Amino acid sequence: MELLYKVYKILHNITKKVVYSLPISEAIKALLIRKLSKIIPLKILLIKVRLPNPISFNKMTLIFREDDNGDLGIINCLSRNEYYEPEVVRVIKRYLKKGAVFIDGGAHIGYFSITAANIVGKEGKVFSFEPFIESYLILKKMQN
């Protein structure tokens, strides 16, 4: 299993280097990486076998659904010590300050909410809204 994971990581890194060298927007690059990473179906099996749930990354802990590709996309990045949607994280870090208020509409499993909470600190506020019941329940678990 370890060898398969290493092969997957090598293929993913090559794909990432090629995509990031293209003259397209950061958002399109992130979308392309996400779509291309689904081509290797082994990824889902490897993630399920290797990752703890919840997972910790850069001062955050996230609970995820092991059967949800959206959750696994985020968790796959974090497992490689990479930010998910790094262009969005850059914007949040650039404009959000300690003590500020952050509103996350469509918070999913809370990745951007937790990122923001680490920045605004106890002096600030983070409001997370999620209409999908399974994601909402995950957010509620993390709140406690």
Q: In one word, what is the shape?
A: globular
Q: State the strand order across the main sheet.
A: 1-2
- Helix/strand-derived category reads mainly alpha
How many strands appear in the DSSP assignment?
4
Produce a short descriptive summary.
By secondary structure, the chain is mainly alpha-helical. The chain is 57% helix and 11% strand.
Describe this structure in words.
The protein contains seven helices and four strands. It has helices spanning 2-20, 26-37, 42-50, 69-79, 86-95, 111-120, 133-143; strands at residues 55-57, 60-62, 101-105, 125-129. The strands form two sheets. It has a two-stranded antiparallel ribbon with strand order 1-2. The model has no long low-confidence stretch (mean pLDDT 83).
Helix-strand blueprint:
Blueprint: H1 2-20, H2 26-37, H3 42-50, E1 55-57, E2 60-62, H4 69-79, H5 86-95, E3 101-105, H6 111-120, E4 125-129, H7 133-143
Helix pairs in contact: 1-2
Supply database-style keywords.
two-stranded antiparallel ribbon, 144 residues, mainly alpha, single chain, globular, 57% helix, 7 helices, two-stranded parallel ribbon
